[in-house]
């Protein structure tokens, strides 16, 4: 394969690796859907083809390896590549077809209420604990002791026990989680845990413990302050 074709292929592969594996690890980012990755790769490929056909010389250099592969010129390595393609392409199509049509023993997807409404007595509660550096630091200490095994020491939902749960523990550093919620909502969820979810929220099957059994309300409010401060987020307010 000519060098003029190797560089575009390498560029497309690097773009795929960046979109698939690098972007999700950027703070504040989320994994990209496959359709969006495919769109970016198609745009990259289109740009490469346009750039490679700006002149007759670059066009001939770009398409020469492809024509050699299709027409059978340079029989040695090209012939081996054609036989490999002839064998692998039908296998790839068959594998893709089987994967999309075969029945699965996985349970069907369930509709989920992302933020089920809390009971009326928890709506609009204000944090009664003063927001002082001492209380925030103490809240972080409680968080480290009771919450970090699941939600992670970096508040990113990647604690040492996180892999054992599906759905995984919430990522507090994600701006679509606690930054969209009021402190009263977190107080309800921490206090009542998974067993306190209403019927419409049950598809979450949350493994959140019922912390009211072990933690006094004051500790829970301090944990909430520590979570927001540690995740560099602010609670949602009516204003």
TrEMBL record:
Keywords: Heme, Iron, Membrane, Metal-binding, Transmembrane, Transmembrane helix
Gene3D superfamilies with a match to the protein in the record: Cytochrome c-like domain
GO molecular function, one term: metal ion binding
Domain (Cytochrome c): residue spans on this chain: 134-231
Lyase keyword on record: no
Transmembrane segments: 5-23, 35-54
The keyword Transmembrane appears for this protein: yes
Record-given protein name: Cytochrome c domain-containing protein
Organism, as annotated: Nitrospira lenta
UniProt signal peptide: none
Pfam families: Cytochrome_CBB3
């Amino acid at each position: 394969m000519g060098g003029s074709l190797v560089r575009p292929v390498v560029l497309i592969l690097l773009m795929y690796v960046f979109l698939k594996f690098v972007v999700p690890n950027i703070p504040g980012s989320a994994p990209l859907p496959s359709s969006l990755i495919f769109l970016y790769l198609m745009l990259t490929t289109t740009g490469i083809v346009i750039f490679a056909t700006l002149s007759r010389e670059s066009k001939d250099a770009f398409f020469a390896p492809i024509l050699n592969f299709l027409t059978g010129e340079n029989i040695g390595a090209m012939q081996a590549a054609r036989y490999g393609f002839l064998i692998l392409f039908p296998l790839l199509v068959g594998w893709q077809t089987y994967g999309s049509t075969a029945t699965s023993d996985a349970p069907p997807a369930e509709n989920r209420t992302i933020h089920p409404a809390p009971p009326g007595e928890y709506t609009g509660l204000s944090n009664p604990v003063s927001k002082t550096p001492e209380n925030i630091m103490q809240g972080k200490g409680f968080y480290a002791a009771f919450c970090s095994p699941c939600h992670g020491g970096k508040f990113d939902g990647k604690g040492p026990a996180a892999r054992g749960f599906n759905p995984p523990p919430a990522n507090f550093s994600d701006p679509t989680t606690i930054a969209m919620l009021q402190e009263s909502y977190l107080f309800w969820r921490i206090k009542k845990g998974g067993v306190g979810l209403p019927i419409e929220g049950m598809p979450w099957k949350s493994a959140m413990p019922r912390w009211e059994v072990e933690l006094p309300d004051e500790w829970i409010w301090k944990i909430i302050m520590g979570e927001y401060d540690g995740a560099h987020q602010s609670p949602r307010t009516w204003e």
